[in-house]
């Protein structure tokens, strides 16, 4: 069985939204990385994205300027899955969230991957343990990243029932080595931790908007001026400790909150925007209007502010209340 010290080379399968940032993170952690994607256009876009992101990290002082080419040089692209995983100790699958595509890839892996290679999926919507061939379950785990993966610290880790605990533990230590905050889950549940919490928030957000209680700007302002920055210091459950668990219990006893009726249905506010083709920054309009805005400059500003807020968050996590 592999140990943390055995992990030298990582194969990242998929170079779309998440793959380049994940590859960058592993390369910054000192690992040799090979990437594979079916599309030549996607491959070239990933190369450009990787280099630009590394220069941003240098601009922010996260790495030295002379490390950009060194780190970028640890990442290689291969034309086939077989070439990409050759010699790999750890495989990180990040391809499109389509069951058929994942089934096809894992069938190929089942025929060529060594039995001692740890395989991780970044799947968000699927139960990958129901998708992969049975012979791979003993080496299958999930490492669930958040976008942009090179910036967001969190990665949620959970193993299959058949895989040894050591595989999940190795993944956690690898991620910590790469500067990530790895959270180990005891067992799999769809949505993991944060996506489930966000979906609960979304249910209430759209209830408030659909019923005319407030608009998007009011919701965002209220969130940014209250529980979100507080959570950087206290999280969610320690906040309850500080407030008093009797108060939390009384909220349940007094029915201070009732779940919105029909909360699982498509919210009218969201449906209208999607039907109109207003999908956010990719189309120039969503809850906010981005017409005439330089989107790349806006994304760069977002990244710089994320650097700042996560540095502060790390400072507080290293010295918790």
Global outline: globular
Going by CATH, the architecture of the largest domain would be 3-Layer(aba) Sandwich
Low-confidence stretches: none
CATH class of the largest domain: Alpha Beta
Please give the alpha-carbon distance between the first and last residues.
39 Å
- Biggest sheet strand line-up: 3-2-1-4-5-6-7-8
In summary, what is this structure?
The chain has about 325 residues and is α/β, with parallel strands linked by helices. The protein is built from 13 helices and eight strands.
What this model shows, in words?
The chain is built from 13 helices and 8 strands. The protein is an alpha/beta fold. The protein has 2 domains: 4-184, 3-Layer(aba) Sandwich (Rossmann fold); 195-318, N-(1-d-carboxylethyl)-l-norvaline Dehydrogenase, domain 2, CATH 1.10.1040. An 8-stranded mixed sheet has the order 3-2-1-4-5-6-7-8. Helix 1 packs across helix 2. The radius of gyration is 21 Å and the shape is globular. It starts with 8 loop residues before the first strand and ends with a helix.
